[in-house]
Design a protein that fits this description.
Length: 68
C-alpha cells in the first residue's frame, strides 16, 4: 500500500508540474494584452487541462496505481 501511495503522489506531482509549465508556455505564447484574446487563451488552458486529466488515468494505470 505504501509503495502505491508513493508512486501515485510522484505521478500526481509530476503531472501538476507538467500542467503548470504547459499552461505558462501557452499563456506566454498567446501573449494576451487585451480582453479580446481572453476567450481563446482560456480555451487553450481548458484543452490542456482536459488532455492531462485524460492522460493521468493512463499514466496511473501504467505505474500500477490504478485501478484502486
Amino acid at each position: 500500500m505504501r509503495g502505491r501511495m508513493g508512486r501515485s503522489a510522484a505521478v500526481c506531482a509530476a503531472l501538476g508540474v507538467l500542467w503548470w509549465a504547459s499552461v505558462r508556455l501557452a499563456w506566454a505564447g498567446i501573449g494576451c494584452e487585451d480582453w479580446g484574446c481572453l476567450a481563446p487563451a482560456v480555451g487553450v488552458v481548458v484543452v490542456i487541462t482536459l488532455a492531462l486529466l485524460a492522460g493521468s488515468a493512463l499514466v496511473l494505470e501504467r505505474v500500477d496505481v490504478r485501478p484502486g
